[in-house]
Amino acid sequence: MNNLFVRSAKKMISEAFEGPPFPSNVSWFTNTEPDSGILAALAGLSAEQASLSIHGTNLAAHADHVRYHLWGTTEFLKAGRMPKMDWKQSWMIAAVEEDRWKEIQRELKEEYTRLLQTLDSTLPWDETYADEALGSLAHSAYHLGAIKQMIKYITA
Fold this sequence. Notes:
By secondary structure, this protein is mainly α. The chain has a single domain (3-155), classed as Four Helix Bundle (Hemerythrin (Met), subunit A). Helices cover 64% and strands 0% of the residues. The chain has helices at residues 3-18, 38-43, 47-51, 59-79, 98-120, 127-155. The chain is globular and about 45 Å long. The mean pLDDT is 91. InterPro entries: DinB/YfiT-like (IPR034660).
């Protein structure tokens, strides 16, 4: 796979997590304000807010689920096969204390960084690898939208 694809995939994944480069009035799918990605959206929330149940889930569970998905994507890209994953387990967080909430956010950022580093490594790019990278982008963008809607609900 050429460097153009990898650069583009990294740029789009970065937008999902960090928002578009700032200052900029251009974005591919997020708002153009600084810090409009997942990481900044979650950083402004308390553990109490992250634990509020909204239609059977909460922001802490969303954040940890996205972290888990990123881990699975990175493991696939490194090993060429999907690790055994328990998707139900990735939604089990019912509430968090402040320390655990900070840990979830730190781990999410670490997995995001690890994915970007893995995309920079030499990978045997084929359609399956490209699908996995783009699937990670789509999954993250979906959860960015869900997270932002949940934040609107709890801060209204």
